[in-house]
């Protein structure tokens, strides 16, 4: 039970009968009353005064959330209560003298442990409210493990989520490599254009056609300069930010991966401790039963002393089991909270990554448009000069520049 989702009720709100000492009434999120013994932590749906001397069925409110996992995997509407409990309740303590040391009889068929993580069975578990209703959020759908179709082994839900993020990291790397190659192409192209603009080919052409030809070669030099500037901007405004973001993204992924992995290892260790303590309790109870049977056969001081000793060991084993269960629940609660926090952080990082890539691709296309426009401006003078080419004018210009005199020769007299 999570106290945050319940409120104390006065006894006369339900029945006029007074509560036995230590008992209080609470309301489940669905509006059903249940009762808690604040001394023993015992819970029941029935009024404690009406069940005096009889076995009480433990109360399990239908809205209990285990690891925030919805067994059907479908989105739910917003629950009536505004807060979703992140911490799992501690496991109910059982008496060391219980006849079933491994599990309580009323819960053995409602839970299952998969790779050291305890889940409710889909057939027995109530619907659990999503942490982010109406949103297909990572924090709601990556709790259980998944079988790897290639290796046949199970991978954790977080590992599936992490692999998706690692693909994004790989994409950033490949995009940076693409930009690097594009920069090399631009630089090489600019180098070749500049070299071509300096060749002396057809330099002997004169007149308006020669002027157009000279402008054409000059346009190559201008175009080379444009492509050099384009490659420099690609490096500073696209490639470098991509590489910087990729490095930071890689560090975040490594940090989250190691953190969740360590928590899962701790959870596995705690689960092993629970199983070990459970087996020890079973052995102690079996030994106690044997000693009790021996006492029934023959009553001796030694047998009675053995029974007392066996009872003490059984009690100690029960206490150890409860301690291990508490440690396991603490570890699982910590793992759960960190999974929620980390999955939401991965969600945020993915949005940031996509937006960053989108912005830099737009910057790339903007630079390309600018380059194309500049390229067009460099060839416009060439087009205008080619349209004004006039062979007659070219002759006139040449003559004016190269004439030697206006007096023409005449016939010689003999």
Structure description:
It contains four helices and eight strands. The protein is of the alpha+beta class and 414 residues long. It has a four-stranded antiparallel beta sheet, with no helix packed on it. The protein has a two-stranded antiparallel ribbon with strand order 5-6. A two-stranded antiparallel ribbon has the order 7-8. The longest helix has 91 residues, at 207-297. Residues 92-102 have a biased composition (Polar residues). Residues 246-305 form a coiled coil. Residues 136-394 form the F-BAR domain.
Describe the protein's topology.
Layout: E1 8-9, E2 23-27, E3 33-37, E4 43-44, E5 111-114, E6 117-120, E7 146-147, E8 154-155, H1 157-197, H2 207-297, H3 301-387, H4 391-402
Antiparallel strand pairs: 1-2, 2-3, 3-4, 5-6, 7-8
Helix pairs in contact: 1-2, 1-3, 2-3
Observed structural traits:
alpha+beta
Task: Give Rg in angstroms.
Answer: 42 Å
State the separation between the terminal residues, measured CA to CA: 140 Å
Binned strand content: 5-15%
What general outline do the C-alpha atoms trace? rod-shaped
Which consecutive residue ranges, at least 5 long each, have pLDDT under 50? 1-14, 57-107
Structural class category: alpha+beta
List the strand order in the largest sheet. 1-2-3-4
**Chain-averaged pLDDT:** 75
Individual helix count: 4
Largest sheet: number of strands, sense, barrel closure: 4 strands, antiparallel
Secondary-structure element series: EEEEEEEEHHHH
Number of strands: 8
Helix content: 55-70%
């Amino acid at each position: 039970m999570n106290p945050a989702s319940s409120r104390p009720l006065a006894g006369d709100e339900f029945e006029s009968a007074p509560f036995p000492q230590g008992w209080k009434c609470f309301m489940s999120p669905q509006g059903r009353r249940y009762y808690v013994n604040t001394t023993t932590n015992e819970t029941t749906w029935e009024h404690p005064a009406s069940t005096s001397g009889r076995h009480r069925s433990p109360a399990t409110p239908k809205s209990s959330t285990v690891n925030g996992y919805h067994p059907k995997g479908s989105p739910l509407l917003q629950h009536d209560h505004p807060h979703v409990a992140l911490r799992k309740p501690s496991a109910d303590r059982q008496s060391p003298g219980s006849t079933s040391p491994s599990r309580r009889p009323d819960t053995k068929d409602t839970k299952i442990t998969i790779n050291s993580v305890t889940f409710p069975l889909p057939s027995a578990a109530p619907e659990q409210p999503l942490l982010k209703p109406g949103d297909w959020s990572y924090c709601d759908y990556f709790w259980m493990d998944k079988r790897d179709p290639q290796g046949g082994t199970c991978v954790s839900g977080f590992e599936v989520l992490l692999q998706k993020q690692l693909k994004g990291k790989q994409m950033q790397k490949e995009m940076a490599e693409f930009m690097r190659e594009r920069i090399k192409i631009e630089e090489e192209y600019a180098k070749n254009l500049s070299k071509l603009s300096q060749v002396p080919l057809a330099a002997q052409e004169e007149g308006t056609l020669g002027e157009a030809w000279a402008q054409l070669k000059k346009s190559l030099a201008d175009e080379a300069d444009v492509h050099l500037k384009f490659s420099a901007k690609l490096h500073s405004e696209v490639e470098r930010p991509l590489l910087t973001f990729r490095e930071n993204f890689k560090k975040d992924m490594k940090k989250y991966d190691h953190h969740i992995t360590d928590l899962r290892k701790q959870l596995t260790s705690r689960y092993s401790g629970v199983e070990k303590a459970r087996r020890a309790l079973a052995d102690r109870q079996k030994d106690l039963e044997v000693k009790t049977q021996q006492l029934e056969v023959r009553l001796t001081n030694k047998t009675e002393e053995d029974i007392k000793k066996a009872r003490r060991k059984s009690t100690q084993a029960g206490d150890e089991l409860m301690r291990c269960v508490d440690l396991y629940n603490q570890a699982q609660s910590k793992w759960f909270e960190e999974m929620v926090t980390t999955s939401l952080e991965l969600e945020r990082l993915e949005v940031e990554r996509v937006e960053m890539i989108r912005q830099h691709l737009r910057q790339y296309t903007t630079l390309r448009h600018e380059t194309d426009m500049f390229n067009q401006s460099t060839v416009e003078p060439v087009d205008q000069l080619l349209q004004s080419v006039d062979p007659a004018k070219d002759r006139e210009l040449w003559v004016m520049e190269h004439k030697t005199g206006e007096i023409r020769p005449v016939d010689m007299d003999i």
